[in-house]
Specification:
This is ABC transporter ATP-binding protein. The chain contains 21 helices and 23 strands. It has a 6-stranded mixed β-sheet, with helices on both faces. A 6-stranded mixed β-sheet has the order 16-20-21-13-22-23, with helices on both faces. Strands 12-11-15-14 form a 4-stranded antiparallel β-sheet, with helices on one face. The N and C termini lie far apart (79 Å). The chain is α/β, with parallel strands linked by helices. The longest helix is centred in the middle third of the chain and has 35 residues, at 242-276.
């Protein structure tokens, strides 16, 4: 049963046609992706389907009573409302269903009214409560707030960053559990772990239909069951996720190419026939001429536009960048301590980790925006971050930086002015280019070059920022969340450019597809000041982490069992014969002392793990101190690792002690 059907939608902005006879149906519970170039009309179509915006013509029918929830790219809130207030506002339907259930239950208890009718109404209200999240929804709200990364649930919206506001809006939509959720770029401003949680939630827990607009190809591939593409005002439907979409689109384009080839062959044949005929025409001849004219007048399929990105590299030495004992702190809390890292020519390092673990702060240090004191001593800048250690750039290292806020753009100026100022040409790759021709490489219509950047969509602004950055000659490219808002076509072009780059790259991103294509290694900020480098792309990194975690769990379980069975009793220890004078001790005094105390340390570490697990299992934590959840999870991970390390050390010392006893 359809939750929504739109028929023959048309929409234009001035002379530009956005939707040209679009028909779309979304079925109950169906998960649909929407893709297309930046500026193609994805957000416009989504707003029209949700009822936020009206089409110029066409009809939309929505299932009676079906609630449609929308996550826009720029959500608006009351400044004085707290983040928790905003999220709880998403429970209006749940509160209404529960209030109805409570009212009917009271009527039944009082014996008033038709008992059979009241029982039926009670069952219906109970079903609505279950559909909208269940009876423990208030606990689940706090869990969702924590999962999406809202660390300050009691802060007013007026003091939150744009990324925090987006996370609050996402949490509000998820708890509302609408019949159709329209999510416009939901993964923007989320870290990789949160995107993976969102992926699981949408597949396993979201009860309604879904219209997902995203550049995140992993999210598309793993969540959606059908993909819509908007292209030149038309919408094409493909079964399956992103991979199936690519395959089916290739087939469609090949069919269009064959159709155009057949049309051209027909025209050549007919024109040749016309040239051979006398001027006097029979009725059949006139009909044939008319068919030829009609075929000739039909427009050919428009060529598929693709971005063409390139950068001029400058020569450099083998080592481009070194971090020596780097420490980074914010508000007195050390995020990174003692980090040693080097970047050599040809390496492309993906940087991942939860928000707030120091990824962007490290980029600031590399860019020279932070400074350590004499001999690498800690020194705070005026904005708050503290840095210690040393950042060393190699000889001739030249860096280009793409920041996630696109702060290098002047929104009042045009696309043209942002790229070239008052000039009409730019230097690219050692040669001079007309600015409009250069902009065409980034999919900008030359006629719109004078359009103010402030009037552009988020994806179009990102393309302007890319175009501006790539006019530089560099050998290191640093990208901070480059995939936010970019369409998949531009992302593919950016990936190809980085792969072919005659230099190196550092990329902070939550886009797993991008990391799999580009990264040669992963630098993971794992919390608690722990930063680890893994060889390979994102999938290789996940496999290594999973393997390490599985090994640690298995070893910890085995060692704990052995520890329990082999722990010496005091009487046994007293009965051991004294070592012979000629024996060579296997354990040093320090090791014997360590062994004597290590069992107690293991017990203490395991007790700490148990305490943290108990805290995280307490529902009141999420209601009263939801902002502490992420920190407790990180602490639990550290304590588990410490317990495993101690058990491993005990086994090592115990083996050595047993060998000494046998000697």
């Amino acid at each position: 049963m359809p939750v929504l059907t739109a028929h023959d939608l048309h929409k234009a902005f001035g002379p530009q046609t956005i939707l040209d006879g679009v028909t779309v149906t979304i079925r109950t519970g169906e998960r649909v992706g929407l893709v297309g170039l930046n500026g193609s009309g994805k957000s416009t179509l989504a707003r029209i389907l949700a009822g936020v915006e009206q089409p110029d013509s066409g009809t939309i029918s929505r299932r009676r009573g079906a609630e449609i929830g929308v996550l826009s790219q720029d959500p608006v809130f009351e400044p004085s409302d707290t983040a928790r207030d905003v999220v709880l506002a998403g429970l209006s339907a749940w509160h209404a269903a529960k209030a109805r259930h409570d009212e009917v239950s009271r009527a039944l208890a009082a014996g008033s009214g038709d008992a059979e009718a009241l029982l039926a109404e009670q069952a219906e209200a109970a079903a609505d409560v279950e559909r909208l999240g269940g009876w423990d929804m208030m606990h689940r709200v706090d869990a969702i707030i924590g999962h999406v990364g809202v660390t300050r649930p009691d802060a007013p919206m007026s003091v939150l960053s744009g990324g925090d506001r987006r996370r609050v809006a996402l949490a509000r939509l998820l708890v509302s559990r609408p019949a159709l959720a329209v999510l416009d770029e939901p993964s923007n401003h989320l870290d990789v772990e949160t995107v993976e949680w969102l992926e699981r939630y949408l597949v396993e827990e979201h009860p309604g239909a879904l219209l997902l607009i995203t550049h995140d190809r992993y999210l598309l591939d793993r969540v959606v069951e059908r993909t819509l593409e908007i292209d030149k005002g038309k919408v094409y439907s493909y079964d399956g996720g992103y991979e199936e979409y690519l395959e089916q689109k290739a087939e469609r384009l090949a069919l269009e190419a064959r159709t155009e080839s057949n049309r051209q062959n027909f025209l050549r044949t007919e024109l040749e026939w016309l040239r051979r005929q006398p001027k006097a025409r029979t009725g059949k001849q006139k009909a044939r001429i008319q068919r030829a004219e009609t075929t000739k007048a039909a427009p050919p399929p428009k060529a598929e536009r693709t971005a063409q990105l390139s950068v001029e590299s400058v020569r450099t030495g083998k080592t481009i960048l070194e971090l020596k004992k780097l420490g980074l702190a914010v508000d007195g809390k050390w995020l990174v301590r003692g980090l040693d890292f080097s970047l050599t020519k040809g390496e492309r390092v993906g940087i991942v980790g939860r928000n707030g673990t120091g990824k962007t702060t490290m980029l600031r240090a590399i860019l020279g925006q932070l400074e350590a004191g004499a001999d690498g001593a800690a020194l705070s800048d005026a904005d708050g971050p503290t840095m210690e250690g040393e950042v060393v750039l190699g000889k001739n290292t030249s860096v280009a930086y793409f920041d996630q806020h696109r702060s290098g753009l002047d929104l009042e100026k045009s696309i043209f002015e942002n790229i070239a100022g008052s000039h009409t040409r730019v230097e690219v790759g050692g040669r001079s280019m007309d600015v409009r021709s250069y902009l065409e490489r980034f999919l900008f219509d030359p006629n719109k070059a004078r359009q103010p950047v402030g009037s552009l969509s988020g994806g179009e602004r990102a393309r302007v920022a890319l175009a501006k950055m790539l006019t530089q000659s560099v050998n290191v490219i640093i990208l901070d969340e480059p995939t936010n808002d970019l369409d998949v076509m531009t992302l593919a072009a950016l990936e190809e450019m980085l792969i072919e780059l005659d230099g190196s790259a550092l990329v902070v991103t939550h886009d797993r597809w991008f990391l799999n294509r580009v990264a040669t290694s992963i630098l993971a900020f794992e919390g608690g000041g722990r930063v680890v480098r893994y060889a390979g792309n994102y999938d290789a990194y996940r496999e290594q982490r999973a393997h390490t975690a599985a090994e640690a769990e298995a070893e910890a379980a085995a060692r704990a069992a052995k520890l329990q069975a082999a722990e010496p009793r005091p009487a046994q220890a007293a009965a051991k014969p004294a070592a012979r004078a000629g024996d060579k001790p296997k354990l040093t005094f320090a090791e014997r002392t360590e062994l004597e105390g290590i069992v107690g340390r293991i017990d203490a570490a395991e007790q700490k793990v148990a305490e943290l697990e108990a805290k995280l299992a307490d529902p009141t934590l999420y209601a009263s101190r939801g902002a502490d959840v992420a920190g407790l999870l990180s602490e639990l991970d550290r304590e588990k690792q410490e317990a495993a390390r101690l058990v491993s050390r005990w086994e090592e010392l115990e083996t050595k002690r047993e060998a000494a006893g046998k000697g």
